[in-house]
Specification:
CATH superfamily of one domain: MFS general substrate transporter like domains
Distance between the termini: 41 Å
Strand content: under 5%
Radius of gyration: 22 Å
CATH class of one domain: Mainly Alpha
Order of helices and strands: HHHHHHHHHHHHHH
Shape: globular
CATH architecture of one domain: Up-down Bundle
Number of strands: 0
CATH topology of one domain: Growth Hormone, Chain: A
Largest sheet: none
Helix content: over 70%
Length: 356
Amino acid sequence: MLGMGFAKSWSQVLAIRVLLGVFAAGYFPGCMYLLSCWYRRYEVQKRFSVFYGVGCVASALAGILAYGLMQMDGAHGIAGWRWILILEGVITVGLSVLCYLLIVDFPDRASRNWKFLTEEECAFVIRRINRDRLDAEAEEFTLKRFLRPALDIKIWAYAVMFGCLTINTYAMAYFLPIILSDGMGFGVGESQCLTAPPWVFAALVMYATAWVGDKIQRRVPILLFNVCLSIIGLPMMGFLESNAARYVGVFLTVAGANANVPACMAWQANNIRGQWTRAFSSATLIGFDGIGGIIASLVFEKDAPQYRPGVFTALGANIVLLLIVVSLTLWYRHCNKQADRGERIIAGVEGFRYTI
């Protein structure tokens, strides 16, 4: 990020962007994987929401921060847009030192690394995870064990769901200031500042729905509720005449799409077991996350003020997401009923049931 602030040509920007993608690729799935190894199935959505919600709050502040840093335009002969990249890079480097000092290891090693827990406390964590899904102990890595989940269609269903979600989330992250300025007629400064409230609202909806989902031990009602928010919000944002009404649609779209990210991650984490299956599944989510980002970066690029191609693409992604959720739900109900009758053992563990 720092290097991009000093780039002088398109080729330099491209090379740095490739490096940024390579080094950032493991971060999000690694965090998901680590969190899912510490908590039981009906505790993860709140934790995922806190983790992802910090990103929403950062997005809320990003527009305001960017507008503030742009006021440094010309300082030391450096353009304002370069200051945004340079100073945000400096902040990230500083935070990385704290991360190195504070990040914890997996439960079976947390007593040895940084002495985060005692051996008795680690044993307690491992026991409660094993009572929930019997996969707390580390498994020896083999390529076959890691790639075996690629034959499981539900792994790819979750990945496609996540890709559909990120078409919406990236579109809002990339283009919301442009939609507010070119589409709704706000000034540059106003557009940067008006991006903040929808992201704060999204963080609140995200945690509230996550709390409810963990409380009632259900995932599908939360996913459907959030999808409905996006399906209502997108046409409001794209097709209404009043800027006030369109801005309300922005709130619903941003909240529905972003609140469903931890909901999707939690539903996936609830219905798979085995450490390398969990690792492979996290990687597929992030792979399709990138595909969603590529699509989002193209469909909202032009066509102001209503951005019809982008709105229709995002709506289509939500409909695909809805169909996958309904299909998986029907399949999981069928499998659970078979398991109740003793006709099927799910995930190789007697008593394991899919979360719906």
